[in-house]
Design brief:
mainly alpha, 5% strand, two-stranded antiparallel sheet
Amino acid sequence: MNEKFSITEVATLRRDLVCSGLDSFQIAEAIKMFVGCHGYSISREFALDTAAWIERPDCSIERLRNELEISAWAM
């Protein structure tokens, strides 16, 4: 399978968002921008779900990457 996002990129995204002080709607927009910068798109609903989940301490980087890989589609 061709990876859309590297573990390093996703780890950096999560770290930056957790430390950002943004609310969940702003985090969702940042997730959409991250995915968009890689040439993909995701639904607003998925971005909001991910924003809520990304702040949880049990959010593993690998699971986050897998969810982004599954939900991102080419623009």
